[in-house]
Write a structure and sequence with these properties.
homodimer, 658 residues, alpha/beta, Ubiquitin-like (UB roll), Nucleotidyltransferase, domain 5, 5 domains, seven-stranded mixed β-sheet, six-stranded mixed β-sheet, 30 strands, 29% helix
């Protein structure tokens, strides 16, 4: 057993969970699906999360809200207690109505399994073939009998001694080769870049004196609308030597892609946005070079991926028609470019590759995710989702793919939600509700007093309230429930998550019906997009075999809850994986295996883009999805069964508040 | 009959010749092979060229050296007489020893037939396929149902409607296409550049609003060591719209390639020479654009050819190893380049092609000549020569080619010759000698008093003196001849071409034995190079079927005389053609027919370069060629026959001066 892990047994639920040494006891309860009243988010303010430590050791958890007798009896505040050994913890009777809670706890938190690139697998499968390769060559020195041109000498030697064919030397190499050969006694290292299309030319992009074959590096960059991430990759070992991220400085000129496009249309705007994003990329490159200590001369390639607008701004290609019907991007594929021509602060020999786009709103970041996740190689019918302000979805397998962008709106990032906020300190990110008292258990990022709700918290709240009958399938509060937390204010029904005195903001933090409605519209847009794509190819959600989530949102979302509200199609959660930053993953993969660069050209042709607004069935599917989880409950049999069971045993409207 | 031409009959020779209206009577005599004593070069100073106009009209020719009676008797000075009608002209008896001269006149002047590019022939043969083509396209306007990326729309349309395949759009076009399409209502002209290798990609290098298909231009440039010539070519008609030449401004940094290379090795030298040559190219381009009135936007391509050193300097590729054994150039082929990256003042979309090199001393100018002259397509065994300071020779036909550079030395350009000079005003360019008196007939460029001898004059002098037995086959003067013009000065034997008082320089203009020796060495180097190449492939000079001369020198040289001294192998002179500036011709041909661009890659691989200094037989061949015309007279049967006939009738040593 892992020495840093402890087993915590919660009573009377009789539920066990593994917790890291020092972990929060309140979070442990949440993860175990054990509700503990805790409205203040974990700062010890509300004093409601009293638990009894029956055996084992916790650190902290003793506050002025507990008497000396409480403490000696083993009472602690769960939110301030850190697990330091195996524990037996009893939830006091005043926090539970009766034993039936034991069968009613929330489903355990379940986020997606992380699918990482497995370098060893790549190597074993023979796929670890970086598109850039260095070869050390000891060329014969010219004589009167053998005075071939220098370029012919090198190319001929590679043909004869290394079986290389279809070679072409880039002009900057031609310009310096004669000097380098003579400086190094004709012992040099040649850098070869393999063709993207098999059968095309291999480019000799650099020659260096002596043997530099052990120093060969690549850079991968994800150009996000909000953030830019870079990795510096060792092409000999395959390892990431450095990784940095930074905000996309274009934010100063517009928060989202539409406002960036509008700025780009102003005189000098395109140039400015291009310059600014290149500036961030260069800053990241500099940091990575310093961190890793590599010589910039040994960096051979850079691969970048971003959405269609970010890509066009990066390449100084005016994105004006992206934002106007009929939403035409300039290009799908871009040729390999000399990085310096874009202003990237790498050496002249460095080629920049940019991931291709499918359409105006399904861009290179998504294509990179499709490549990096292996979706394009799988037999299984897979749903790929990258959820942010815009959600992009791809459905398919190695034989076909369909994609669409859904205007989900900003609900998942806290936008349009009364107390919505990004997933930063003070955001309620996890939630549970006492099924009888409807008291909340709020957990915040940073374990501080709440100030708002982030996307993952919002989904859990709505799912929990729906399962407990606190809201109905249209997201309306049950007006009959006897709790002061559910109230009507100015004609709007809401649930008070945190009373003002327990917040950071001295206002009640509430969840309103319009908030819930916004969430339902957002999830409905995504789910109906998914259904529409499937219908277009004659399939249904029941045919889906796998879900891949990409992007920051996907790492936090509780899968079971996301299925409960109908954001994700119902599926065994073990078949859902999370790939993190798919754009960066794809860019890195392209650096390590040339097959990806080759395959992506076909893949991008294979992906059929659907403009949902132009697809007849989309509106019907959307309307049908504006319910929790959906009009058609047969699509969600697991949830239906859970709801049916609960309704039979505990019709919530009959419960009286303690 | 041409109205501007007159027939002149010379008596007693009974020789007729056609002369342009206003042409010099002295030159007419020379061309007819009729000797008239005339040492002053044609300014009327020596007064020796008296002739009698028996019928017809001349203008001028009356000087103070003629009495009134002379004039009324029909006497004129030939050098100042201009032909204005058909004439009968008698050469007075005092200028001829006896009638045997009638059988002994010099061979008529015979320069090479000019072989020009025949545009109509190209068109008929289907070879008029410029590598750059414009297509006017009316693209379907995007709709919600058809919102392909702009690039895909254009490429797809070209595929579907024009049968174009393997298309790739250059990045600068991608950057501007969206704007141009929308500005022009999707009616545009695309500029396509065909691949050099069939099967490779066709590049879309430009898009322009509206229909510009009638405006498509190319530029061809010859980068010579001394001069640079440019042509602006209409790719629709094939015509040359403008042509300019200028000195290569690199001359300020060294007269010949070796001194240029030395300058390029100094710090900043390479950059300076590059900048200076590009400056001249840009000046020529500007002049041609102004002259032709074309829009610079409609110039699609530039093709350049030069010797190996000029090419490397043009491309900023250090030529240092060209001048050092084992004489290694940097590259044979150079990839197509964006012209602006070289600093060429054309638009961003213009591709620059540079003719490939065979070796350090057989460069792109020669390859261009091989392509432009059609040598690479002929069945006939052909000798191609470009004679300047360095003479380059190529021997072969469509199946094989061998080449070499001969260090001929500067004799053909007047270098190393006591009174040698370039072919400018005052240079003796034509010469004849009275076979009995050994009096000269000098004709100068510009018909002014002589100041020196140019290359073509030198060849004629030596050939004439050799045929008349004035010099022997080793180039030594016959010490027995009784003429004051042959004399020994300071131990050196010489022939006085012009007495000091008849010159511009107040010194006797002479031809010395060392001068003749220099010429013999120069022609020996070339001839033996030719023999060596033939021997290497198991052939001999008798197998040659055709000679092609390129370069300025080739246009003036008297073919019969060049064969007499053994510079050219003996051959029917009708089988010798002159192509002028072969480098410019090849560059122009490449602009008009893409086949040339494709074929040149194979051709340059097909040409075997021989380093003569490394070829065992070369020195033997060289020594054998240090005679007039050669040790082996069987290689020159026509000359042998002429000499034999002359010796039998008039052994020169028996002649007494009148």
């Amino acid at each position: 057993m892992d020495m840093g892990m402890h087993t915590v047994l919660f009573l009377p639920h009789n539920r066990k969970i593994q917790v890291k040494d020092g972990g929060s006891l309140l979070r442990a309860a949440m993860e175990a699906g054990v509700h503990v009243n805790a409205s203040c988010g974990g700062e010890g303010v509300c004093g409601k999360c009293r638990v009894i430590i029956e055996s084992g050791v916790v650190e902290g958890g003793i506050t002025e809200k507990l008497t000396a007798k409480d403490v000696s009896d083993g009472y602690r505040q769960a939110c301030l207690s850190m697990v330091k050994s195996d524990l037996t913890v009893r939830i006091p009777v005043e926090s539970v109505i009766d034993a039936s809670i034991l069968n009613m706890q929330s489903t355990p938190r379940c986020t997606a399994r992380i699918q990482q690139m497995n370098l060893e697998e790549l190597k074993e499968a023979g796929l670890f073939v970086p598109p850039v390769e260095k070869k050390y060559l000891e060329l014969p020195v010219p004589t009167q009998q053998d005075n071939l041109p220098d370029v012919s000498r090198l190319v001929g030697f590679l043909k004869l001694e290394h079986g290389e064919h279809r070679l072409v030397m880039d002009f900057p190499v031609i310009q310096k080769i004669s000097d380098i050969l003579r400086r190094s006694d004709f012992k040099i290292t040649a850098t070869l870049v393999r063709p993207v299309h098999p059968g095309r030319k291999t480019h000799i992009v650099n020659v260096q004196p002596g043997d530099t074959t052990s120093r060969n590096y690549a850079i991968a960059v994800d150009i996000g609308t909000t953030t830019i991430y870079g990795q510096l990759i060792d092409l000999v070992s395959g390892e990431v030597l450095a990784q940095f991220g930074d905000f996309n400085a274009q934010i100063s000129y517009g928060e989202d892609v539409i406002s960036r496009i509008m700025y780009a249309e102003k005189p000098g705007g395109l140039e400015k946005l291009h310059e600014v994003v290149i500036g961030v990329v260069n800053k990241l490159i500099e940091k990575m070079i310093i961190k890793s200590g590599v010589d910039i001369e040994d960096i051979s390639t850079i691969t970048m991926a971003g959405n269609t607008t970010m890509t066009q701004l990066l390449l100084k290609v005016n994105p004006r028609s992206i934002r106007r019907a009929p939403y035409v991007p300039t290009s799908s594929l871009y040729p390999p470019l000399q990085a310096v021509t874009l202003g990237i602060a790498l050496k002249e020999h460095v080629t920049a590759l940019v991931y291709p786009q499918v359409s105006s709103y399904v861009g290179g970041d998504i294509v990179a995710g499709v490549m990096g996740s292996g979706l394009y190689r799988t037999e299984e019918l897979t749903l790929f989702m990258d959820i942010g302000t815009n959600a992009e979805i791809v459905i398919g397998n190695k034989d076909w793919m369909a994609c669409a962008a859904c205007s989900a709106g900003p609900a998942f990032e806290g936008g349009g939600i009364t107390f919505g906020m990004r997933a930063t300190k003070g955001a309620i990110e996890d939630f549970s509700m006492d099924p009888f008292t409807f008291e909340p258990m709020n957990i915040t990022i940073g374990n501080v007093r709440p100030k708002g709700i982030c996307g993952s918290g919002l989904i859990i709240m709505v799912a929990t309230m729906f399962e407990l009958g606190v809201i109905d399938n249209r997201g309306k509060f049950n007006r009959n429930l006897k709790t002061p937390r559910i109230r009507e204010t100015g004609g709007i029904w809401e649930y008070v998550l945190v009373w003002a005195n327990e917040t950071q903001i001295d206002r009640d933090v509430v969840l309103t019906e319009p908030d819930i409605d916004n969430l339902i519209r957002a999830k409905g847009a995504i789910y109906s997009g998914c259904m529409t794509l499937l219908e277009e190819v004659g399939l249904g959600v029941q045919n889906l075999e796998r879900i891949i989530l990409a992007g920051g949102f996907g790492s936090y979302v509780d899968l079971e809850k996301a299925m409960t509200i109908g954001l994700l199609p119902e599926m065994d959660t073990s078949r859902v994986t999370f790939i993190g930053n798919g754009s960066l993953l794809g860019a890195r993969m392209s650096s390590l295996t040339n097959r990806i660069r080759q395959d992506v050209v076909d893949v991008v042709k294979k992906i059929t883009n659907f403009e949902l607004s132009e697809t007849h069935s989309y509106m019907d599917n959307y309307v049908a999805a504006l319910f929790l989880p959906h009009t058609d409950m047969n699509k969600f049999p697991r949830i239906k069964a859970r709801l049916d069971a609960r309704r039979q045993s505990h019709p919530p409207e009959n419960v009286t508040v303690v």
